[in-house]
Amino acid sequence: MTHEPNYGREFLGDHETASYDRNKDMKEFEDTKAGVKGVVDAAAGGALSKIPRIFVRPDDELAEEEEELSVLKRCENGSKFETPVIDFGGVAWMNKNDAGYEEIVNEIRHASETWGFFQLINHGIPESVMDEMMKGVKRFHEQDAKVKKPMYSRDPNESMVYFDNHSHFHKARFAEWKDSLVCRMLSPDPINPKELPETFRDVMMEYTKHVVNLGDILTELLSEGLGLPGLDCTKKLDHIAHYYPACPEPQLTMGNGKHSDPTFFTVLLQDDIGGLQFVHQKFWVDVKPVPGSLLVNIGDLLQVISNERFKSAEHRVMANLVGPRISVASYFSGSKTTTKLYGLFKELVSGENDNNRSLSKCITILE
């Protein structure tokens, strides 16, 4: 006799799934303005043993996950995939005619076309700045909830800096196990530093300076890889500083659900805990953190304007028994308030060749 897996339904107690009022619990969670860290801190005895129902993924998603894992266990290829690592050493001082420059362009082109993800080493951002950035994010999220509450918002247009769970409450089927601080650094005008939290104001400005410089270099190399005139990808920059608390039931929820980024590209600073995965050849590939590295992934906008030569890969972050996991995602994109249409460059389309025909429609940032 077989039994239907209950995937954490035991946490519902006497309440049937059909009678569960998700919207009510979501609102109660949102009204605390304390985020997931607040849920963890409020646990009796200081040790959370079960996650609230709003964080539990639906049964069909959990069943699909179980099937994916069983397939992965039966196939060796998925475990053999390794995220490409590209050495940026000296690229900022190279001439375009240098052999080393061309090699880096080729590596970025291949990684962008094949994987959509790659890790950068020797990228030029001092490790001391990255370390202090991570410490500052941790300080912000672990300070008293009363200090963070005035910054809590569900309206992304309300402020240049805001704190929330960053789950799409009315669209998502469960709340994600993370808290996020969004800082709109360039929009395209630079942010007033006084709007940033004191816990990492100075290092955030310093880190941003380095990331924008790196973004400009990446834009040049990506343009070269496509054989296009200079792309314009770094006019808008958002930092999203994520905090993923340790989770007592990581198999039932997600730190960040499956998605692709509505950006040109994203630069990620992360700690060594891991948990980020992306899709490659229908497998979920674990990104193994490389000390001192930064992770780059191609976004939807660059996939569109490259006529799908560059791949915007879906990715996610697994919840973990170990934590907190800290990361800072730097999104280079366009403004959500503009109606500008982004489409592929005409240089990448040829009516004579079916292989070069347009594969993407023009889109706005909101699309």
TrEMBL record:
Gene3D superfamilies: B-lactam Antibiotic, Isopenicillin N Synthase, Chain (2.60.120.330). Coiled coil: none annotated. Residues 235-335 form the Fe2OG dioxygenase domain. PROSITE patterns: FE2OG_OXY. InterPro entries: DIOX_N (IPR026992), IPNS-like_FE2OG_OXY (IPR044861), IPNS-like_sf (IPR027443), Oxoglu/Fe-dep_dioxygenase_dom (IPR005123). The keyword Iron applies. The keyword Transmembrane helix does not apply. Belongs to the iron/ascorbate-dependent oxidoreductase family. This is Fe2OG dioxygenase domain-containing protein. It comes from Papaver nudicaule.
